[in-house]
Design brief:
heterodimer, A: 112 residues, alpha+beta, Alpha-Beta Plaits, two-stranded antiparallel ribbon, 2 helices, elongated, B: 782 residues, Beta Polymerase, domain 2, Four Helix Bundle (Hemerythrin (Met), subunit A), cca-adding enzyme, domain 2, 4 domains, 4-stranded mixed sheet, 36 helices, 55% helix
Chain lengths: 112, 782
């Protein structure tokens, strides 16, 4: 099993969610986060003061999927989230040791 | 059953010296299917029980076996007569006691003592009860509205109903009539108990659906609205009782804020932190008194006394009649909404029914439920919370909210924002989808009825009809795509509207539920505001009027080349007035107009552009001792310059000496035409007061060459002082640069000046930027 963690632009959330649902990804966790990448945000000038905006609002999507489907899902997610501009975000993939469905104790792939 | 068990087990062991009493719910004869049966075993003394303990436990056992949930205690009459701070439950349960069986003589002695005990311990009992209740209310955030209420403990539930009766009993007054509410709650509790087979009082979402079906309501939301109406009635009664009891209990008011009584005036007295009417009957005769009452509340933050509330309630039919007629109510309402405690005042108006008397439209959203996990409040409560959020911004010192606090403090007309918020969701009661237009449809006639002027109504209309737009853009558009900022800028059109809409959005989101305004959302909202602000300021320079629809070719020619902002921020009448100035200018070379605008003055002049023009006039005003608050300078494609200075006259020279007005006008003309050197004027000007030592602003000069294609944007923030603008503008002109557009604003001691500057018709190069930067910083330093 693999955990896919994606940090994306907030305005891309609806499109990404729809794409994931369409390819049959049922469960995901979504959080509002703030951060930045290599460009460390940017500078804004307001009322004569320079603000460095380095904690940009982003959205984090997490899901655990089977090994077999991982690559396909990562590709679909990335395509849906891409605008081609700086700030698009990143996807990380982790190994998962175990998954348990709390309601009935299903384990492994059956719990996904 | 109890009596039989007692007869079997108890009385044989205790022929005398013990009596059985029903207390609590049992005593009240309000027993729900699975509630506890509260018993009190009254004994002469505890030794009796110790010697024959088996009988007591046998008695209890038999009842347990029979399936009763018992809660019992064993006390002597003396013990009952003590006030137990740690066991208020006992004292309170005694209030509902009644005789069941056993030693009548013993009971008689006890019953005799009881009234005396109640009288003597009234204070302590009340204190305990009110304290417990306040704690419980606080646990539930002092609101009866909860998504899944506990119908026993949540404010407005059965405990509150009991509280009202107990407090009334202790004070020996009649409890208010709440039969329908009690029946509703009691039936509901019976249903819940039988549904879950135990003493379960939690009205979960599932339970709500089932109960609504069981009680044959036309829908869960409709049935819940009924629930909340009843809960509100019970809660309000409970709060009134709490206040009346606390007021009588002088130990609670040990910290008498007596100094507040000095706020009393001819209409109202202040006593014990509450507002009382001097002439209670005056309400019927003079309905304006009701508005003045809440102006008082809004000003001082002191609430009306329960009696005042009752008087108001009695006068409501008359008041409603009065408000139904079109009347100039807006000035009084605007006053209320501008004062520090406006939110508390509006809530008071709502609770007493005055708001609904003024605006019957509000009835549509009373207790209206939005059934989802996100919305924490009924629509009416949400509206009141939005007002509170804005008013709290004034007092908020937290860094997270500070940017929005500053924005709010810059609003010239906060009352209009609050008014827009008051009506922004009123359309939710009208239709299931799309409440935005519905809200304006409901609000428009209301605002006409109170005779709000057209100009102010326009802003309120804008805010109501657009109140969802910023939050939509925030989450669904790429904030750093220039198209997003451009789109938003086009929708709001002016900086003032942008600020107002930002604040409305801030309040609306914050009031969805206590944690809705996360730092994440605040940041996203601020980003959108920032980008739109910069876009609007940028547009000053680049978006020029080309083909403005105008009645005459002269007007078209006049307008062509001015920034779009000029057309957006001036009314048709003002543009006509400027056109007339331009005609005068053609003949005389210059036209100067000087008007009084509310508390300040406005100087407008039209002439042909030349070097040092702006600086010279700024200097002229300084030499007369005037304090420049705002300034704008525009040039059209014919090279005609239109400059406006808004300034304050601290020594009221112009007001007190009409000849000074003429002298100022004449001087400005001469300076503009080049017949008088402003430096001479400044040499002779009166000494200005030394800058105050408080709040020193660090000067900041920043250049932005990317914002416009043809000019360099310079933003200057500095300590405001007389002659600052002259210094800055002179520095720019003396470096050989030309001022294309100017925007001046002041914020307390801070001057915020934006210049669009060119040199030789183009943006400044590096060398020019450096030299000008130095010169400007020198000018700021004073």
């Amino acid at each position: 099993m693999k955990k896919i963690e994606a940090i994306i632009q907030p305005f891309k959330l609806d499109e990404v969610k729809e794409t994931l649902t369409n390819i049959g990804v049922d469960g995901m966790t979504i959080g509002e986060v703030r951060g930045h990448g290599r460009q460390k945000g940017h500078k804004e000038v307001y009322r004569g003061r320079e603000y460095t905006v380095d904690l940009l609002p982003k959205v984090k999507i997490e899901m655990v999927v089977s090994d077999a489907r991982c690559e396909e899902i990562v590709k679909a997610l990335t395509a849906a989230a891409r605008t081609g501009k700086i700030g698009d975000g990143k996807v990380f993939v982790y190994d998962v040791l175990e998954a348990v469905r709390i309601r009935n104790d299903d384990r492994g792939d059956a719990a996904l | 059953m109890v009596e039989r068990a007692a007869a079997d087990r108890l009385w044989p062991a205790f022929p005398s010296g013990m009596a059985l009493l029903a207390v609590g719910g049992y005593g009240r004869r309000h027993l729900f299917p699975y509630s506890d049966v509260d018993l009190l075993l009254l004994v002469e003394n505890h030794r009796l029980v110790e010697s024959a303990g088996g009988a007591v436990s046998g008695f209890l056992q038999s009842l347990w076996d029979a399936g009763l949930r018992l809660s019992h205690s064993v006390r002597t009459p003396e013990e009952c007569a003590e006030v137990h701070d740690s066991n208020v439950e006992l004292n309170v349960s005694l209030l509902d006691q009644r005789y069941l069986a056993g030693d009548r003589a013993l009971y008689g002695r006890f019953a005799e003592k009881l009234p005396r005990f109640l009288r003597a311990q009234r204070e302590a009992l009340t204190r305990n009860l009110t304290q417990l209740t306040r704690e419980r209310h606080l646990k539930y955030q002092n609101t009866y509205y909860h998504l899944e209420p506990n119908i026993k403990d949540t404010p407005g539930g059965l405990r509150d109903y009991q509280l009202v009766r107990w407090l009334a009993r202790i004070r020996r007054v009649d409890a208010p009539e709440m039969e329908p509410a009690f029946l509703f709650l009691a039936r509901l509790r019976c249903y819940l108990h039988s549904l879950s087979g135990r003493d379960n009082n939690a009205l979960t979402f599932d339970a709500q659906e089932q109960a609504a079906a069981y009680f044959a309501a036309s829908g869960t939301a409709v049935w819940m609205r009924d629930y909340f109406r009843h809960a509100r009635e019970v809660y309000r009664a409970a709060v009134r009782e709490l206040e009346s009891s606390e007021a009588q209990n002088s130990s609670l008011f040990a910290q008498f804020k007596d100094w507040r009584t000095r706020l009393s005036n001819s209409d109202f007295t202040v006593s014990r932190e509450r507002v009382h009417l001097r002439e209670p009957h005056a309400l019927e005769a003079g309905p304006e008194l009701a508005l003045r009452l809440f102006e008082f509340v809004a000003r001082h933050g002191i609430r009306p006394s329960p009696e005042t509330g009752q008087r108001l309630a009695a006068a409501l039919p008359r008041l409603q009649e009065w408000f139904a007629e079109p009347r100039p109510v807006w000035p009084a309402l605007r006053e209320i909404l501008s004062l520090p405690y406006a939110a508390e005042a509006v809530r008071g108006m709502y609770d007493t029914g005055l708001l609904r008397a003024t605006f019957p439209e509000m009835a549509q959203i009373e207790c209206l439920v939005i059934r989802d996990f996100y919305h924490r409040y009924t629509v009416d409560e949400h509206t009141l919370v939005t007002l509170q959020v804005l008013c709290d911004l004034r007092r908020n010192r937290e860094p997270a909210a500070r940017r929005f606090s500053e924005l709010f403090s810059e609003m010239e007309e906060p009352a209009l924002l609050l008014c827009a918020l008051l009506f922004h969701d009123v359309g939710k009661g009208a239709s299931d989808n799309g409440h935005v237009e519905a809200s304006w449809r409901v609000a428009e006639p209301a605002l006409e009825r109170i005779q709000m002027p057209r100009r102010e109504r326009d802003l309120v209309e804008f805010l109501i009809r657009r109140h969802l737009e910023m939050s939509a853009v925030m989450t669904s558009r790429d904030l750093h795509d220039p198209a997003t900022a451009r789109d938003m800028a086009q929708r709001v059109e002016t900086l003032e509207r942008l600020k107002a809409l930002t604040l409305i959005t801030y309040a609306d989101i914050s009031a969805v539920n206590p944690s809705a305004m996360t730092p994440w959302r605040a940041e996203a909202l601020w980003q959108l505001y920032l980008l739109t602000y910069n876009e609007l300021t940028r547009e000053l320079e680049t978006d020029r009027i080309q083909n403005f629809p105008a009645d005459t070719p002269e007007k078209q020619a006049f307008l062509a080349g001015f920034p779009m902002r000029y057309a957006r921020t001036h009314t048709a009448d003002q543009i006509d007035a400027h056109l007339r100035l331009d005609e005068i200018r053609r003949q005389r070379g210059v036209a100067v107009a000087l008007d009084k605008v509310e508390a300040a003055w406005r100087l407008t002049f039209v002439t042909v552009d030349r070097q040092f023009l702006f600086a010279s006039v700024a200097g002229t005003l300084s030499s007369f001792g005037m304090n420049i608050l705002k300034a704008e300078a525009f040039a059209n494609s014919q090279g005609t310059v239109l400059d406006t200075f808004t300034f304050a006259d601290p020594t009221r020279t112009l007001e007190l000496n009409p000849t000074e007005l003429d002298r100022l006008r004449a001087t400005v003309e001469r300076v503009v035409l080049g017949r008088l050197d402003v430096r001479q004027l400044l040499r002779n000007r009166p000494k200005s007061a030394p800058p105050s030592r408080e709040s020193h602003v660090r000067p900041a000069v920043s250049f932005n060459p990317d914002v416009s294609d043809s000019a360099t944007l310079i933003e200057i923030v500095a300590q405001d002082r007389p002659g600052l603008l002259y210094g800055l503008a002179s520095a720019i002109s003396s470096q050989g640069c030309n001022i294309e557009v100017v925007l001046i604003d002041t914020e307390a001691h801070k001057a915020i000046d934006v210049f669009y500057v060119t040199a030789g018709g183009r943006k400044l190069d590096e060398g020019q930027t450096e030299k000008l930067g130095e010169a400007l910083r020198r000018a700021c330093g004073g």
